[in-house]
Every structure is written in C-alpha cells, then in structure tokens.
Amino acid sequence: MRMTAVLISAGVISLCAATVAWSQTPAPKGAQNAAPVPVRASGPQVACNGSPDALGVARVVQIDTTGGPGFGFEHFKQLDFLRDKEVVLTFDDGPWPGKTPAVLKALADQCTTGIFFSIGKHATYHPEILRNVAAAGHTIGGHTWSHANLNNKKLSEDQRKEEIEKGFSAVKWALEAEPAPFFRFPALQHPPEIVTYLGERNVAIFSCDVDSFDFKTRNAEQVVTNIFKKLDKVGKGIILMHDFQKHTAEALPEILRRLKAGGYKVAQMKAKAPIQTLAQYDEALKKDTKLPTVSTRPIDSVVQTISE
C-alpha cells in the first residue's frame, strides 16, 4: 500500500512521493476471523486496538516549521492544505488523570491520532500520562506553562516568552525528549509581537477551523452537536477539543464514529524536526519548580507482594 506524504515549508506546499510501509496487527483474542487492520510501521506506530472498520489515519503530513507557519482558518488562511472531508484532531490542556487516558482509548479503538497541546504545569504533574500519549504515536506540542492569556497587557514581553518557553521545557522534561515545535495560544489570543517571536523560534502556530466549545458545554451530546454543526458546513478542518474536559472524553467515541460514517478522514500532522528548547528555561524549570521524582525502575523491582 502506498501513501503520499505532504511536506509544508515556509508557507509553500509541495508534494513528494513517499512510500510508507504498512504491517498488520494481530487480531485480538476472540476475533481471529476479523479482517486485519493496517497500521503504519515506519516511525512511532499509532496505537490500534484492531477494529476491522476503524477510522484510521488516511494521510500523514510533515510540517517544516521554519518561520512559524500558522494553521487553522479561524486566524490563518494561507495554508489551505487539507483535502475535502479531511480533519485534524487536536486536544488542549492535558495531560490529566482519567480524561486523557479515556481520550487515548477512544483514539486507539479507532486506530487514529491527534495533536495534544500540553500545559507545562500539567506535564510536570502527570509525566507518565504524557509519556503514554507519546507512546501511542500522537504528536505533542506546547500550550504555555500555566495557560496564561498572552494577550494580557499586565504581562511583560519577557513573561509572555517565559510562558511559552517554560511550557516547552516542562513538556520536554516530562517526555525526556523534545516535543514538536507546535504551539496553540490559550483562548486563541494571538498578540502580534508573540506571533513574530514564535516565527523567529520556528514554531508553528495552531488556531482551528471547528471549535467544539467543550469547555462550556454540560454534556457529551452537545459536544458532538457543536462539532458537526460546523464541520458539516465547512467540510474539513482542524477540530479543537480538550483532553482536560470530562464531556470530551465521553463524546469522543461518538465523534469518531460519526466521522467514519460521514466519510471524513483523519490527517496526522508531524513536525520535520523537534523544537530546540532554550537552556535557560530548562534550568529555570528545574530550579524554580518542585518537580516530582520520576522512577525509571520496573514496577516489580519497586513493589513486591510478600504476603496475601
């Protein structure tokens, strides 16, 4: 099976032929007669529970973030790279216990993927959950250190930069690896001078095309309605959700089912290169933040049953 990968560089879209190897995951126990589900074998695999009619991943695009390209027609209209009926799933504000794992399960059940824009503080609270996001093959970007509104005039320019850089440093610390140079502003507030700064740092900026408004919705059914009311009108786009929200985790299985039933396909966005965090913020994070101790030992070397 062949797939065409798209590379986006400095605002210019070019196509290159790329062959992506595919493998088949074993059918789960009790489903040996089910049709095999293809999963990508090159690079980190997207977690897949083996459903024969899964939504899957239709296309992988690689992003050259040089100059800080912007994505999402809510604010950026230059790079219209998505095809009709193609969506990108995005999740803000995690990682968070219970909710992020439920989102991961829903995605794995449909063998599909998204971009997770992590809050730096949350990454330091729950590094093991963020590592599970990475292990499942999803893309991880930054969403500031504390979810500060960077359009707040009370913040100095240095404080705004610190929110961005310390956030990325925290995600790096949690992952023990550099995340993607992908960033989403809290509340989608884009102060021009910070947009310029991110361009100088070669960080891509994400707005959205479809907002789930899950942060102010009281039930899962309304989250689904919010998404498809807009998506069915525009026909494609970057969907903004929050893996911090209970109703999003509850709604996601139905959202993915309706995407599949409606003929929508998921595009995965990956960065050409990871972000290079700044040493001063890496060090400040360690100095100023009481980071939890993360054990790298296997569980059976830490906890042993001696009596039952």
TrEMBL record:
CDD domains: CE4_NodB_like_6s_7s. GO terms for biological process: carbohydrate metabolic process. Residues 85-267 form the NodB homology domain. Keywords: Hydrolase, Metal-binding, Signal. The keyword Metal-binding applies. Pfam families: Polysacc_deac_1 (PF01522). One of its GO terms (molecular function) is hydrolase activity, acting on carbon-nitrogen (but not peptide) bonds. PROSITE patterns: NODB. One of its GO terms (cellular component) is membrane. Residues 1-23 form the signal peptide. Belongs to the polysaccharide deacetylase family. Is involved in generating a small heat-stable compound (Nod), an acylated oligomer of N-acetylglucosamine, that stimulates mitosis in various plant protoplasts. This is Chitooligosaccharide deacetylase. It comes from Nitrobacter winogradskyi (strain ATCC 25391 / DSM 10237 / CIP 104748 / NCIMB 11846 / Nb-255).
